[in-house]
Amino acid sequence: MSEFSIVTIVKGRRKQLANLLESVKASTMLPHDIQIVCMDNLDGITIPDNLNVNLHLINETHELPLAAARNRGVAAAKTDNVIFIDVDCIVSPSLFANMLMRVQADTIITAYPLYLPMLPETGSYDDLMHQAVAHPAREHIPVGVPVEHLQFWSLIFAVRKQTFEKIGGFDESFIGYGAEDTDFAMMFHEANMALIFVHDYVLHQYHNKHDPPVNHFHSIIENATRYRQKWNVLPMQRWLKAFAAMGLIKIDQADHITVLQNPSDYQIKNSISPNPY
């Protein structure tokens, strides 16, 4: 089977990264190389033995340059097959083999997430999988056949490097949190790439999350506006409608967004979700 590279990006999340690398090391197939792109600094990163890990420090003025960091990781990857893994993931031992069997020049391959209710002390998939729950919107997506492209997000996916370059990579004009995944899905759909799920899993390690993510309010508004200009439709509509219901924004009939006020500290604090997903 073909060699492959792993790309992950990280800011903080040192324990999650250690757990991810532990799970990678337990895989039935080891990557040729792992490209870790750090959006903060290189402090506190521990590299296990027998993994070829390369560290990169991305120097961007924005505090969360997600698109640029992912593109940097692919540029550094040393093989033709690239598997993107979110730093919050723990991978099943069989995941890489199952994904690589399906990667072709016209496909984006992904897998199903299961969600842990805690940040575990270990990266052992077998020890943790019975504690994880499925995402109710994801568990019924069919396996092995092309599915609607907007089912994509960058938690876990495999792509050939040439395919990624043909798509154009992640659009770096989306800065910070929100819409860069959906934009990438639109671009690979325009390029006639199929999104296919394999019957395998990643475990998502718990971290505090906001629903709606008012902690990323400004970048979500900026990226939603950028997306509407590019694709003539508003993305992230559930979040935007929630912002509107909170009195933070107004959306007119032409889908223009007007910011009415910034979220308060109280609104940010009380938006933390108890759900693991």
Automatic annotation (TrEMBL):
It comes from the Bacteria. PANTHER family: GALACTOFURANOSYLTRANSFERASE GLFT2 (PTHR43179:SF12), RHAMNOSYLTRANSFERASE WBBL (PTHR43179). InterPro entries: GlycosylTrfase-like_prok (IPR019290), Nucleotide-diphossugar_trans (IPR029044). It comes from Dyadobacter luticola. Belongs to the glycosyltransferase 2 family. Keywords: Glycosyltransferase, Transferase. Residues 60-195 form the Glycosyltransferase 2-like prokaryotic type domain. This is Glycosyltransferase.
